[in-house]
Amino acid sequence: MINYIENHTDSQKSFRTIFSFIVKKGKTTRREIQKGTNYSWSSVSGVVSVLLNNNLVIETDPVISGVGRGTSYIVPNGDRFVSIGLDINSTGFTSSVVGVDGSIKYKNMRPYLGDTKEYVLDLMFKLIDDCLAFAKDKYNVASIGVSCQGTVINHSIYKRFVFAKDFMYCNIKEIIEKKYGIFTYLEHDTNCLLEDYLFNHNEGYVSVCVARIVSGLGFAISSNGQSLEMFGPIDFGHMIVQPRDGDKCLCGMNGCLEAYVSSVGIARRAGVEDFSIIEKNRDKYRNILDEAGFYLGVALANLSHIFSLDGVVMTGHVIGNDETMLKQIIKYNNEFSGEERAEIKYLPNLSPSFGAARLSFIEKVDKEGAF
Ligand SMILES: [Zn+2]
Question: Does residue 103 come out as left (phi exceeding 0), alpha (psi in the -120 to 50 range) or beta?
């Protein structure tokens, strides 16, 4: 009996590992799966056959150098299973419906105009309902991923959304799963952006950092295509850059990097109510923006040294299309990096909802197998 259970578990495990590998890769070969998972050729062939028979994956174009049977590329079947991704952000909530092959089926956005937990949940439900209405009769919705700015606990509880006064320790996973019966997974927004970067924009850096500069400041780092898993988020935004008489940060401390470079911090330092005022006339506030560029450039130089980065990708509306600010950041980064400097670039359109959808599906396969 014990043997039977163990055998059964092993076969489930190989199934999950192999399917998960295919989903992560997006497009792969049996040979690559064998190398990447260490399962035998016959196990890989067997599991891939089952996946093909169940329409979970499909075979596409033949591998050019391949010889013999089983030399077509394997991709997850994006016409059957999709995941919903949501991004909770102070400017607006966005959603995506993403096929398990990484194809984007649908996108939506609703502005965030409230300041209560009830409003946040209601807006999330509206976006999920929009996505479900789109997917109805066409796709099976396998999972929901939620990208959150700030701290996420156990991929379930969103600790604090500072733009809703009573939003504290909210178990979003439980709330969504209870309402919709769909597997739900929460992730830090920067890890979701990193997933989008690695899947859709990968430029071959060995160690790359994605920095999101919006109303908050977030970082995620990947090494060799694997995201760096920490106990919590990489909270470099709350590194103290002014230990004495520093500006107040939203986290409650004084002198955090975020207090000098986030849209909220910059607006406060400029003495205006909202960053949108600065966005309309950046030249008028150039001194404050330069100062933010200085803090960011120095911080990225420090980060590059700590993690041996060769690439840094910035995103978010604080930089937006402000080339002067981007140049300042690069200038200061170079000044403090020395010769070992990471390449710094700005990508405006990284999508946290895309990354959240992908990560939720990978997690579902890892946790629950293939349904
Ligand atoms: Zn802080």
Answer: beta
Q: How far is the CA of 245 from the centre of ligand 1 (A)?
A: 14
CB-based contact 253:242 (threshold 8 Å): no
> What torsion, rounded to 10 degrees, do the Cα atoms 329, 271, 244, 308 define?
-20
Instruction: From 18, 51, 76, give the residue that closes a domain.
Output: 76
Please report, for the chain, how many H helices and E strands are present, in that order: 12, 15
Residue 16 has pLDDT above 80, yes or no: no
DSSP designation for 78: T
| pLDDT tier at 339, thresholds 50, 70, 90 | confident
Which structural domain range is residue 359 located in?
Answer: 81-193+352-368
Ranges 46-50, 155-159, 315-319: which has the least confidence? 46-50
Q: Which residues surround ligand 1, an ion (CB under 5 A)?
A: 238, 249, 251, 253, 256
What is the count of structural domains for the chain?
3
Alpha carbon distance 358, 23 (integer Å): 9
Looking at 76, 104, 127, the residue that finishes a domain is 76
pLDDT digits (tens, 9 = 90+) for 107-127: 999 999 999 999 999 999 999
CATH of the domain at 118: 3.30.420.40
- Cα of 200 from ligand 1 centre, angstroms: 31
**What's the gap in Å between 238 CA and the centre of ligand 1?**
4
* DSSP characters over 309-363: -SEEEEESTTTTT-HHHHHHHHHHHHHHH-SS--EEEE-TT--HHHHHHHHHHHH
Output the CA 233–ligand 1 centroid distance in Å: 13
With a threshold of 0.90, does the pTM exceed it? no
pLDDT at 24: 83
Look at strands 217-223 and 207-213 and give their pairing: antiparallel
pLDDT band at 20 (very low <50, low <70, confident <90, very high): confident
Q: Is residue 244 part of a domain?
A: yes
Of the pLDDT bands very low, low, confident and very high (cuts 50, 70, 90), residue 91 is confident
Element (H, E) at 220: strand 217-223
